[in-house]
Specification:
Layout: H1 8-29, H2 39-64, H3 79-87, E1 94-96, H4 102-108, H5 112-119, H6 152-167, E2 173-178, H7 185-196, E3 201-207, E4 210-211, E5 214-215, H8 216-219, E6 236-240, H9 244-259, E7 265-270, H10 289-296, H11 300-310, H12 316-339
Parallel strand pairs: 1-2, 2-3, 3-7, 6-7
Antiparallel strand pairs: 4-5
Helix pairs in contact: 2-3, 2-4, 2-11, 2-12, 3-4, 3-9, 5-12, 6-7
The structure holds thiamine diphosphate.
Thiamine diphosphate (TPP) binds near residues 149, 208 and 212.
Length: about 350
C-alpha cells in the first residue's frame, strides 16, 4: 500500500488517463449509430444498469442503518462493465465473477429478491444462506459464482469454456477480474490454456485503478493490462468502462470470435468504484477527492441516458419508468428478505455439496 503523498505523481498520471479515455469515448460517440445494440437491448441495458445501482445504493443504506449482511464490496460506478459484457452474451452462456460480484450477478439475471435474502442470511436466498455476498451462485442463469479468491473465477470460466468445446456447444464464458487479479499466477495459466486450446472465453479486466489501496501504477508493469494479451497471442483492447455501449461493442466482437472457434480475447474496461474497497474502507486514505469527482463526472448511467436521448434512441418517459419500476423491485426485494425465515440448526448439514446435474439445488 502506498501513502497518499507517496504516489501523487502516479495519481496525476491516472487522472490524465481517465480524462483521455473519456475523450476517446466522446469522439467515438459520433460513430455510435454505425454499431448499436437493438432498441430492445438498449432498454434491457438501462434496466440492468439502474437495477444494479439501486440494489447497491439500497444495500449501502441498509448496512449503514445496522443490518448485518457481512462483508460487502459495492459495485457502484462499474455497472457499465457487467451490463456491456452480459448484453453481448446469450442466456446459455456463462460468467464467473470476483469478490465485487453483485453487479455481475444482476447483469446475468440472478433474481434480486433472492440475492437480497442471501445477504440477509435467509433460507430463501440464492444459496439458501450458505453463501453470502462473496459466494452468490446461480448456475440456472449461467452465473458460475461470486468468488472471494482473487483471480479464481477466471479459472472457472476457462473450465466452463473447455466443457463447451468438448461437448461441441456454442457457449461462451466471460471471466471478470480486477487489475489486481490480473497479476495472479492462475489467471496467466488459465489465459495460456485458453489460448493454446482456442477456448471460447472473454477475459474481462475491470481496471478500477486500485487493488484495495494499491494504485495500478505501483503494481502493474505494463501501461495497459490489455497489452498482456500479446503474450498469449490473443486480441487485447482497452475500452471506456464507463460507456456500456462501448463495452458491449468490444464484447460482441469477442463473443463472435469465440463462437467462430477462434479462441479467447482480453477486454480491459477502464472504470472506477465510487466507494471503498469494502463497506468499512475509507478511500480518503489513498484517493484524491478530485479524482473521485472526475470519475463521478463520467457516471455510466448518466452517460447512457444522454447517449440514448441525444440520439433519439429511447425516450425520457421510457427511462423514467424503468427507474421507478426498479425502485419498486428493490423495495420488494428488501421486504422479501426481511420477511423470510432464518435457517434452523439442522439446515447446517443440508445442501453443502455440488448442485445436481440439472442445475437445481436439491
Ligand atoms: C488470492 C487472494 N489474494 C489476496 C486476497 C485479498 N484481496 C481481496 S480483494 C483484493 C484486491 C483485489 O483487487 P482487484 O483485483 O483490482 O479488484 P477490485 O477490488 O479493485 O475490484 C485483495 C488483495 C484475496 N482475497 N485472494
Amino acid at each position: 500500500m502506498l501513502s497518499r503523498g507517496g504516489c501523487s505523481q502516479e495519481k496525476a498520471g491516472k487522472l490524465q488517463r481517465l480524462t483521455h479515455t473519456s475523450s476517446n469515448s466522446a469522439s467515438r460517440a459520433a460513430g455510435l449509430a454505425q454499431n448499436l445494440p437493438s432498441r430492445e437491448k438498449l432498454l434491457w441495458m438501462y434496466e440492468r444498469l439502474t437495477l444494479i445501482r439501486e440494489f447497491e445504493e439500497r444495500l449501502k443504506w441498509l448496512v449503514e442503518t445496522g443490518v448485518p449482511v457481512g462483508a460487502v464490496h459495492y459495485y457502484t460506478g462499474q455497472e457499465a462493465c457487467a451490463v456491456g459484457v452480459c448484453a453481448a452474451l446469450e442466456p446459455g452462456d456463462w460468467i464467473a465473477s470476483t469478490h465485487r460480484g453483485h453487479g455481475h450477478c444482476i447483469a446475468k439475471g440472478v433474481e434480486v429478491h433472492r440475492m437480497m435474502a442471501e445477504l440477509y442470511g435467509k433460507t430463501t436466498g440464492s444459496n439458501r444462506a450458505k453463501g453470502g455476498s462473496m459466494h452468490i451462485t446461480d448456475v440456472r442463469v449461467g452465473m458460475l459464482g461470486v468468488n472471494p479468491i482473487v483471480g479464481m473465477g477466471v479459472t472457472h470460466a476457462v473450465g466452463a469454456a473447455l466443457s463447451a468445446k468438448v461437448r461441441k456447444t456454442s457457449q461462451v464464458a466471460a471471466a471478470f477480474f480486477g487489475e489486481g487479479g490480473a497479476s495472479i499466477g492462475a489467471v496467466h495459466e488459465a489465459m495460456n490454456l485458453a489460448a493454446i486450446w482456442k477456448l471460447p472465453v472473454l477475459f474481462v479486466c475491470e481496471n478500477n485503478g486500485y487493488a484495495q489501496a494499491t494504485p495500478v501504477e505501483y503494481a502493474v508493469s505494463v501501461r495497459r493490462i490489455a497489452d498482456r494479451a500479446a503474450a498469449y497471442s490473443m486480441p487485447g483492447v482497452t475500452v471506456d468502462g464507463q460507456d456500456a455501449i462501448a463495452v458491449w461493442e468490444a464484447s460482441a466482437a469477442a463473443v463472435e470470435r469465440a463462437r467462430r472457434g477462434q479462441g479467447p480475447s482480453l477486454i480491459e474496461c477502464m472504470t472506477y468504484r465510487y466507494y471503498g474497497h469494502h463497506q468499512g474502507d475509507d478511500t480518503g486514505r489513498y484517493r484524491p477527492r478530485e479524482e473521485e469527482q472526475s470519475a463521478r463526472d463520467r457516471d455510466c448511467i448518466r452517460r447512457f441516458r444522454e447517449q440514448t436521448l441525444d440520439q433519439h434512441l429511447l425516450t425520457a418517459t421510457e427511462l423514467d419508468a424503468i427507474e421507478a419500476a426498479n425502485r419498486k423491485k428493490i423495495d420488494e426485494a428488501v421486504a422479501f428478505a426481511e420477511s423470510s425465515p432464518l435457517p434452523q440448526p439442522a439446515d447446517l448439514f443440508t445442501h453443502v455439496y455440488v448442485p445436481a446435474r440439472d442445475g437445481e439445488q436439491k
